[in-house]
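Notes from the 1:1 (GR / supervisor)

We went over the backlog. Supervisor wanted to see one worked example end to end before approving the batch request, so GR pasted a single chain during the call. The sequence is below; no edits were made to it. Supervisor asked that the structure be written out right there so they could see what the output format looks like.
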Amino acid sequence: MNAFLKTTSVCLSLVCAMCAGQAQNLYPQKSISIVVPYVTGGVSDGLARALGVKLSSALGQQVLIENKPGGNTLIGASHVAKSAADGYTLLLTAESTLTMNPMLYAKLPYDVEKNFAPVVALASIPQSFVISPSVPAKSLQEFVQLAKKSPKNYSFANLGIGSSAHLNFELLQRVADMQLVDIAYKGASSAITDLMGGHVSAMIVSTGLVSAQAKANNLRVLAVAGNKRSPQLPEVPTFKEAGFESFTPSSWFALMGVAGTPKDTLEKINLEVNKILKDPTFKADQLDRFALEPIGGTPEQLASLIKSESQRWSHIIKDMNIRLD
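Structure output shown during the call:
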């Protein structure tokens, strides 16, 4: 009798294990939401929608994009942090949400380590230093000299206190020993419009958002980030070539899940996203469109990136003495 019960117990355990495995493999069984904590029309929104189309096809379920802007990404990020840990709510955000905000705010409505689970690093965002065509400078060195002579006559577009665009510009001001007038904007689109119109002097922004206007001579790009020149703007020097070797503006996008989400679910999403990022057609039609460079990799590699960048920005933000309430 004991042998029979023991055999029965083993069989039931095997059946339960098989059922659990089948349940996990059935993911997803309903639509998935990717929350973007920015306004529509930007690079993050464009990347999310392009990725969503491909993921819908790969996973067999509709992927919806939800824009929840505001609060320096706090609104969208906190929404995801409070969501169920089932893989049906994801966060697509730039690095500031994960590496800068924890250093800027005394209190956050989320904890990066406790509330989020890394899924995959998506793409790096090459940055450019751009000026209005009304500014009489042909190089970054010339712009700096003009700004030093008449600081009140020159301004920069701030895309949000504590945003990567803001902190990168503040870092450049320290390196160049200049201080421009700070003008706040809610998004890159309106800032670029004002830049072309001469209402603001300069900004640091994604190369993909300004390359077309630069080619049309509606604005002027004086330097690009990276170790080599941008294929979209090959005539523009890198910051190193422009004489600012120590200045390396960086920005990147990542896909995050909710902490506690089953590992198999996160791995499945990671696998499909990596396939998409490696697709030459997706790169040519979507990533190149925004001047993005694919990253990819494992959740563990993303976790390591978040940790190293958090340490880097911690020193910079502390040195700048920037705190937000």
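Supervisor's comment: The chain has two domains: 32-125+251-320, 127-224.
Batch request approved.
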